[in-house]
Here is the input.
Amino acid sequence: DGAGIGPAVHAGLDQRLVRGTVERRAVDGVLDLLRRVTLADPAPDGAPWPVAVVGAPLDGAAHEALVEAGVHGWADAGAIDAPALRALADRAAARWRREHALRSELVRVRTRMDERKWVDKAKGLLMLARGMGEDEAFGLLRSTAMHANLRLGEVSRAVVDAAQWAEAVNRAGQLRMLSQRLARLAAQVLLHIEPARSLDQRRSVVERVDENITHLARLPAEPACAAALARVRAAREAMVAVWPARAAPRDMARIDATAEALLEGAEALVEALQAASGRRALRIVNLCGRQRMLAERIAKGALLATLGTGGDATLLPATAQAFEDALVALEQAPLTSPEVRAALAAARDEWLRLARSLQNLGRPQGGTALARSAEALVDTFDQLAAQYERSLQVILS
Here is the structure.
């Protein structure tokens, strides 16, 4: 009937006994009763109390079923008296304590193994990103854990998570740049600026877009991130579809419109990833990565103006001003290092070269010079974004 056997046993042994009249054909009913009683107060390391069953004699299969259900003792109701019942309860309690101790030790061992796994991953990440030795990387993790008053495994896992989020923001930022690069390459083909090279680059850009989308799809599924990624996928398909094998100037407006749709989707994805990460330090990775898109957008806008499909005449100067403002913000940012300062100086030089190439666009080979200058500027910010991504301030954020 599922009733307890009396307050004395409960008080003396701190346990619950499930009592029922058990026939061989009714074992399933008893097991269901045990499951319902146990689930009323579940514990991650097994049954929260000793469990004993008093009932009719059982066959071998029923014994195995009771063990699987977590029963710690059972006895024939026809041959039990008060002392035997207390002995049964004592045996069940002893078995439960032993089982509970073993389960607790197993949890501790698994926790230590899991922590070691995360520590090894974090050490490898620091060694690769910062050129540290193994001892130096471990010392940094340990001192960070002490200062943060956290377990070493917790800090190590946070370091790995931060690196993954930083890479995700960087890759999503690359999608912004690639959207504008595809439109620039289409304009170059129509203007007969290295058309064969431009078509080869188009194929590699589409492959890079697909690679980044595949990587980002493996991240934990956050609803906002998943929705933005689906938007990026749809824009990618649309952009490839509207670029015919033999494009004409009339196709450029549609190509650019799909590039803008891909850009908007990538922007939404970057913002969603940054919000999901909960790490403010990733803003500088985003800011730096966005410069790549602006460089390509400037070159694209100049070529569209030459082609006669430039659209808004204020777009190019506004984009150039946005680039300059962001470059100044990066130069003044507190997150810096000798490597970052050198990369920013190189970016400033490349920016000046791109500005000069805009002025010389009408000259022979001016379009080629503009394209090469934009690519060099993007490469510079690619390297700079990677340095921010691997910086200790971001990794330990």
Summary: The chain has a mean pLDDT of 83. DSSP finds 14 helices and three strands in the chain.
